[in-house]
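User: I want to check something. If I give you two sequences, will you return the structure for each one separately, not as a complex?

Assistant: Yes, each is folded on its own. Here is the first sequence with its structure:
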Amino acid sequence: MRSSRASTRSVIACRAPTPACRTPSRRSTSSTTARARWHPEAPPWPPEPPTAADGASALAGGAASAASGASQLRDGSAQLRDGATQLDDGIGQLSTGATQLRDGLASGVEQIPHSDDATRQAQAAAISDPVAVGTSSVTKAQNYGAGLAPFFAALAGWIGIYALFLIVKPVSKRAITALRSPIRVTLAGWLTPAGLGALQMVGLFTVLAITLQFSFANPWAALGILLFASATYAAIVLALNVWLGSVGQFLGLVLMVLQLVTAGGTFPWQTLPAPLAALHHVLPMGYVVDAMRQVMYGGDLTRVGPDLLVLGAWMAGGVLLAAIGVTRMTHHRTLRDLQPSLIG
């Protein structure tokens, strides 16, 4: 059997032709044969030297890159030149604006007034309260109760007359059946509640002047207005009752409610909506309130005359309509009208 060392061959597979692959190892014995095998994937060795074509191609690529860089450098230089120009213009504008600001501040400092302590306090007061409200009044009421007295006196007169017509018949059917004069029947139907209403107004005035101790600038004029208003209310309610009967009584209540709002006794009537403000200029209670305020507080007495004229027109209209209604009743009668009345 042969020795294994003698028969052993050393095979070296190399990827590159190095000296180790070409020369046997020193450690190998004399009987060992070293073979160097080339790996199929290894590049050729030694490498082939570059050719002239490769150099020319590389030179052409470098020249193109140099040309592109030169073009970019030219564009950048143009942008830099434009930016420098704009920067120079901006610096000039900044210098001009700084000069104007300096001059403006200097001029503003010269315009600041040199005020003393009193002037500064007045300025501070004006700044803290810039709006000054000036008030002026023709006259003033004694107190809150006196301020509402004209309205409630006028309202009490209407309520008193309305309550009287609920108790007393407006006209006497017996007198109408007896063919009495319509004017006499009408006057009797009006003067009776007007007289009772006058007694109510005297009692009301006594309460206002003595019990509540409200001051009256013109006491007799105030009492006269109350009496005149009561007679006017009596004429209005009489006409409603003669023409419409129970419906007229209901309308008298409706008129009272409307005048609660439109008379302007508790708040200014100027704040009312347009339809209600128009009623203020028509219905009588607003004129009674205005006349009472003028004579009670000592206001503008020239306004009392127009107020009384309006009330007089309402009174005359009410009496006239009532007389026409009574005349109509004397000409158109039924058996029911001929039946005797227990009250009159």
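And separately, the second sequence with its own structure:
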Amino acid sequence: MFNFSWMAQATTSKHPRLYGLLPNFSTMLALLVASAAIAGGLWVWSFGLAFTAAFLPLFAKTVAAVVGMTALNFWFSREINTFMFSTREVRENFKFDEHNPTDLRKLVNQVRCEVNAHFKKVYGDKHQDIPMPRLLTFTDHHFKMVTVEGRNPGKAAILFSSGALNSHDTNLNQRHMAALVAMQLVKIYHRRSLGGTLVGMGLDLVNTLENARSGNLFYRVIGFLIWPLQFFLLLQRAIKRSYEYDAALTVVDMGRGMDLIDAIDFKVCPVLFEKPTYRRLAEDQASKKRSEYNGPFASWVRWFTNWIDKQEYAGDDKTGWRILSAIDAIVRELGFFINELFDPNPRSTNLKTPMRQAIPGYEQASNQADLDRLYARDREINRDLYKEIAKKDRYEVIGPDGSGVVKSAHAHEHSHKLKEKITRLEKAIAQLSKGRVASKPTKGGAPITTQHARGKASTKVQPHQVADSAKRAAKPTSKRHH
């Protein structure tokens, strides 16, 4: 494979001299060549911009620079993200997560086939299959999944952080991962990267002019005139959020909506073990509301007081003034709104709302049995797509009958070793118990003589020895007469 590893080796000194401060001659020469090449490339780029600006009207240089950089970023987006994240390609038979071994290529390939089968039913003859995207991993302990749509679906990529592939920390099984991957593949299928790139180019242009106007009066005037174009920033975020909503609803139609809702919950709180149904939560919220306001001007302000009562959290103290709770709610929700306004990803609560409405019976489910029926219905919807997939492309772990969990051989070996240790410990405890029973007195009452006891018995003074000692003590000695 073509790479520049030989250049990296050539520009790294293996045996520097002068206490490690002076590289060898070949390294110095390679560094000079590399620096000259970089400087030459920058000079050519600057000359090209200046030459173009000479034949274009106002702001030509700025516009040309922004358009040129945007075009390069769009055309080489996959390759740029590949080296920016210091990624590694996921090859065949790569398995991740020792707690739930995941064959990532097989998982993504089956979901890709499901996406193709779904859109084939939707678009018919106009449908075009998307190929397998490039799968890459990078080191980051946080859950991150980056989608690069590329200049066409054949140049797409999905980047997984190391934290996203650790089910022990994320609490996500392979069915959850399949639902999240389906969202990324839907965005790749719709081929909306060009529109997002154009909006991003407008944003870059506005930012460049905004920065330039501080040093030049003419730029300052023009920058002030185009200041309203800052809405490009909000527009770009809004467009990307709309992609998330659209992809989530498509995943619901594919029969993975329940898994996607669970995955979103685990992304927000990985240690979430159990939660009530949506209906139970709504009933609990309603049961803990304040009593309806019946004070002065009740008929006029009841709509406002009812709104305040809905905004209070179920566990909040409700003995204070309603107007203060209203101010708290406005500050909180305004903060949520501003955060989401500048974020390309929607708030999880807002993302789940249309999904709950799109799954028939979800908001009415009151117990686990009702939820189990919704899971079963999802699996049957997904089974129709699963039948369209060739056997060689199937990954049974995330299929309609798959649990999303694979018991690893390492875990089995660890369990076997643990059982052996427990068995040895039980035997040692049994032997110790037998020793204690043997040390107890016998039925005849005679003590069991151990080596230590025998030693003590041998040193015991007999009666006749006591008498002889007394006689010797009573007999006077010559020293005492003196």
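Because they were folded independently, the notes below concern the second chain alone. The chain is about 60% helix and 5% strand. The radius of gyration is 38 Å.
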